[in-house]
Amino acid sequence: MTALSAAASPLDAAAKRNIIAVASGKGGVGKTWLSITLAHALAKAGRRTLLFDGDLGLANVDVQLGVTPRRDLGSVLAGQATMAQAVARYADGGFDILAGRSGSGSLASLPAARLAGLRSDLHLLAQDYDWVVLDLGAGIERAVRVLVGHSRTCLVVATDEPTSITDAYAFIKVTALDRLSEDIRIVVNMASGTRDGERTYGTLRKACREFLKLEPPLAGIVRRDDHVKDSIRRQTSLLTRHPNSEAALDVEAIAKQFAEPS
Ligand SMILES: Nc1ncnc2c1ncn2[C@@H]1O[C@H](COP(=O)(O)OP(=O)(O)OP(=O)(O)O)[C@@H](O)[C@H]1O
Ligand SMILES: [Mg+2]
């Protein structure tokens, strides 16, 4: 356990109730797209939702949605704005965004004290929302661990590629061994069909059961769907552009699990 996650305050405990971290081992498995679509689905269900771009090195929530917020996490880190001031409204989706800023440095390089400050600010901000969806960078660097450690649920995204499965397993292992999240759930993305998705989940679950004595539940299977690429190309949320597409329905089914924060 890291020194930072050990120093949990009552504020951290409160925030644990409504932060959903979206993580993976391998990059490019659809975390950012899933975070956006999940945030939109929660907003559609009437929840006050904030999408937080926690991947500062390669931030691209704003790129996928075609928005250019006046302020972002880069402004917060530079001391030019408070976190609350850096929140922007994404009116099309009915949710708020705290954008990252690509190239403004990685969260990984932040001194521990700054990272802890950022985390406390996030927890304060989270109190204004029903749900905060936290899009994380790939891998298991320190900043990812600190943020996952203060989430209510960690959705680990994997695809059927062997490297994605082994990297998701490695991520789950560290997360479980360090007791960073008690609620780890798996999302299989870009599945060619439900059966293929179940097979991918089964492989991952088997490894977790055998080696970690852990069986993370399946949060959902999201099918591979060309509408996803189309909506990203057009910088529009899938739920706006293709609300009845397979991938949209799959993410809405995942969002139903998070209808009511406890
Ligand atoms: N269900 C899907 N069907 C088809 N294509 C998809 C699906 N999900 C994601 N993609 C494609 O995968 C690409 C990568 O997605 P995204 O940028 O969200 O991944 P990421 O995990 O956030 O990557 P990184 O690790 O670099 O942050 C998207 O541009 C999109 O084209
Ligand atoms: Mg991403």
Task: Describe what this molecule looks like in 3D.
The chain is an alpha/beta fold and 262 residues long. Helices cover 44% and strands 17% of the residues. The chain contains twelve helices and eight strands. It has helices at residues 3-6, 10-15, 31-44, 61-65, 73-77, 112-126, 142-148, 162-177, 194-212, 226-233, 238-241, 246-256, and strands at residues 19-23, 49-54, 88-90, 95-98, 131-136, 153-158, 184-191, 218-223. An eight-stranded mixed sheet has the order 3-4-2-5-1-6-7-8, with helices on both faces. Helix 9 links the parallel strand 7 (184-191) and strand 8 (218-223). Helix 3 (31-44) crosses helix 12 and helix 8 (162-177) crosses helix 9 (194-212). The chain is globular, with a radius of gyration of 17 Å.
In short:
With 262 residues, the chain is α/β, with parallel strands linked by helices. The protein has helices at 3-6, 10-15, 31-44, 61-65, 73-77, 112-126, 142-148, 162-177, 194-212, 226-233, 238-241, 246-256, and strands at residues 19-23, 49-54, 88-90, 95-98, 131-136, 153-158, 184-191, 218-223. The model is unreliable at 1-7 (pLDDT under 50).
What keyword list fits this structure?
globular, 8 strands, disordered N terminus, 262 residues, 17% strand, binds magnesium ion, 8-stranded mixed beta sheet, Rossmann fold, alpha/beta, binds adenosine-5'-triphosphate
